[in-house]
Amino acid sequence: MSATPSVTIAIPTLNEAASIRALVERFLVTRYPNLIEILVSDGGSRDGTREIVLELAARDARVALLENPARIQASGLNLALERARGEVFLRADAHCLYADDYVERCVETLLETGALNAGGAQRFVARTAFQAGVALASRSRLGSGGARYRDPARSGWAETVYLGCFWRDVLREVGGYSLRATNEDFELNIRLLAKAQPGAPGELPRGVYVSSSIRVEYFPRTSLASLFRQYFWYGRGRCRTVLEHPGKSPWRSRAPFLGISSAIALLLIDVGALGGRLHSIAALGVGVLAVFAEGARSAFRWRACFREEFWRGDPEQLPGLAPRALLCGVVLLCQPIAHFSGFACELGARALDRGGAR
Hints:
The protein is of the alpha/beta class. The chain has helices at residues 20-28, 49-59, 73-83, 102-113, 129-139, 141-144, 168-173, 184-195, 224-244, 255-273, 279-301, 306-309, 321-357; strands at residues 7-13, 35-42, 63-67, 88-91, 96-98, 117-120, 123-124, 156-157, 162-167, 208-210, 216-218.
């Protein structure tokens, strides 16, 4: 294997005119010597994204626009995978910030570790007060579930990484991205881990590697409603993955559903069997307070480095400690409720399908 294998970068887009030019131009000037193409799979953008990509393609033959009529990310990535000429397939998103050495570090980690997929942590950053709350929640164990790919300081074998850098032929061999899973990256990594060399007893297979040297920053949703929708679909996707790959998903995939289901069951038992004394409501109240206490703890913990570590907005609009703490608590409450709702919705839909089939 060459020390500088050829690389294809795949970017699925839908209405990304605000960021696509800067992103593609940033990758075009990478110091990595063997970037041979950047494939932008567009799902029918109407904001000028397509025109920008075509303009860039006219200036540099390495850029190409692909049509993605299905409009979803997984189908766009599969179109790029089918077209890709590079030995390495690097998956990128249009709404992220990438370090100058991102491509080099991804390929370097892939080569040095022998992994099937290499990537970095999902580093949440913010331009608004609400995004600040989401970013802080991502560093809380309550918000991350202990996921290895949420810890920017960690390097080692993991269940998944953010985005990812793959050997193209291996990715084709496992069938590319699933069109059924909303969490297509996580589901793909389950299949990659099944092909990987086993690790030491009690350790993960040696298939997916997260490296602290690979830096990419992610801008989360900007409103509570959009965050709820995102985690609702995450919940539906995780439910599908749990059911289709039994025993392969970590506990955090089921934790919101199991936890909230148990709380609802206790509440119903309390109301029905204990004469309406509602002990469980008091317990739920304590739980909500604990969530907001965790939001305050997270904001306080990262207060000294918040500006450098998380804030990418106007320095004059930096939100204060109290708003950050409050919004972090709101996010920590919203995410599991939305995830539970999506998980339950998928279970209900499958039960109705089975009933209809009978």
